[in-house]
Specification:
alpha+beta
Length: 299
C-alpha cells in the first residue's frame, strides 16, 4: 500500500438497479460544503442496503459544478440507473478503449494543473474512435481482479467540495493480479518515502484502474473501512457503469502526471453498485459468469 493516512470510509454495491426504493435513515453531521439542493434519483441499485446520508439532502446530482463539461461528467459520476446484464471487461479492453480516446486528439485532462481542457461539454467527441462492438460509457460492466489500494477521495465538484468522509467518494485501485505495493515505515525519511512512492506508482501505472463508490445512498458494506479487509486478499468482481474521467489523464509510462492518480486508464467503474467476493482462490474459478460470487451487500 502507498503511504497515506487513510480516513474512514465505506462502500456498497449491487448489479441491478432497483427503482423506487428509499434508503433507511442514518443520523449524520451537517456537511460543511456548498448546498446545491437535494440529490434526485429514481434509482437505487443497493436495494435495502442503501443508507441515507446528510449529503443526499445538500448536494444535487451535478454537485456544485459550474461548467457544462463538469456538470455533464458529474451527472454520470452519480448515475445510479444503469441496468441490464453487466458486461465483463478486462484490463486489455480498457487499455484499448483508452487508446481510442487518445486517438481522437480531444483535449481533456486536469485544467487546474494547466495540462488539459477538462471534461468536454459534448462527451461524444471523446468516443468517435471506439472499436466496433466495444463497451461504451454508461454501460453496466464488471471487472474481476484484486483490490490493491483503498483511500478516501478528495474535495471535488461532484461532492459539492465536501470533506467529511460520509460525503465524499471512496477511491479503490483494482488490478487483474496482485501487486507488491509497499508502505513506508513510520521512521522513513523523505527520500525513502519518495522511493517507495515511485515504485508503487510504477506498478499502478501499468496494472491498475480506479473504481469509486459515491456517498449518495452508500451502504455500509461499500464504505472504506468495510472494503479495506478485502485488499490484497480476495478475488472480487466490481460492478457499475463505465465512466471516462476526463478530468485526469493516464500515466505516461510508469509516471503519473501532477494531480493525476497512478493508473493505466482513466476509464473507471463509477459509481460502484456492487462488490462481490469469490469463494475460490484461483482466477480460473472466479470468472465473471461463475456461481462462486457473493455480494458484500448480502447478509
Amino acid at each position: 500500500m502507498r503511504f497515506f493516512i487513510a480516513a474512514v470510509l465505506l462502500l456498497p454495491m449491487t448489479t441491478a438497479s432497483v427503482l423506487g426504493q428509499e434508503p433507511r435513515n442514518e443520523s449524520a453531521k451537517a456537511q460543511v460544503c456548498k448546498n446545491t439542493g437535494k440529490f434526485e434519483s429514481s434509482c437505487n441499485p443497493f436495494s435495502k442496503a442503501a443508507v441515507a446520508h446528510a449529503v443526499d439532502n445538500t448536494c444535487a446530482i451535478t454537485g456544485d459544478a459550474t461548467t457544462d463539461g463538469d456538470k455533464a461528467q458529474d451527472r454520470l459520476k452519480n448515475n445510479l440507473c444503469a441496468n441490464g446484464s453487466a458486461r465483463a471487461i478486462t484490463m486489455k479492453e480498457l487499455t484499448a478503449l483508452q487508446n481510442s480516446v487518445d486517438a481522437t486528439g480531444v483535449n481533456y485532462g486536469n485544467e487546474h494543473e494547466g495540462k488539459g481542457g477538462g471534461p468536454p461539454a459534448d462527451r461524444s467527441t471523446l468516443f468517435t474512435k471506439l472499436p466496433a462492438g466495444s463497451a461504451k460509457e454508461g454501460d453496466l460492466v464488471s471487472f474481476v481482479g484484486y483490490i490493491v489500494e483503498v483511500q478516501p477521495g478528495s474535495s471535488e465538484t461532484v461532492d459539492c467540495h465536501c470533506t467529511e468522509t460520509d460525503a465524499i467518494d471512496v477511491h479503490i485501485a483494482v488490478a487483474d493480479h496482485l501487486l507488491d505495493l509497499q508502505t513506508a515505515p513510520a521512521n522513513a525519511t523523505k527520500e525513502q518515502k519518495h522511493e517507495i512512492t515511485v515504485k508503487n506508482d510504477a506498478q499502478l501505472c501499468t496494472n491498475s484502474l480506479v473504481v469509486e463508490t459515491i456517498p449518495h445512498k452508500r451502504p455500509a458494506a461499500l464504505e472504506q473501512q468495510a472494503i479495506e479487509p478485502l485488499r490484497d486478499k480476495k478475488i472480487v468482481k466490481i460492478t457499475g457503469p463505465l465512466l471516462f474521467d476526463a478530468s485526469h489523464k493516464p500515466c505516461h509510462g510508469t509516471t503519473p502526471g501532477t494531480g493525476d492518480p497512478a493508473r493505466v486508464t482513466v476509464f473507471e467503474i463509477h459509481p460502484v453498485y456492487d462488490i462481490a467476493v469469490c469463494s475460490q482462490s484461483a482466477m480460473t474459478q472466479c470468472t465473471a459468469d461463475s456461481n462462486n460470487w457473493k455480494s458484500v451487500l448480502q447478509k
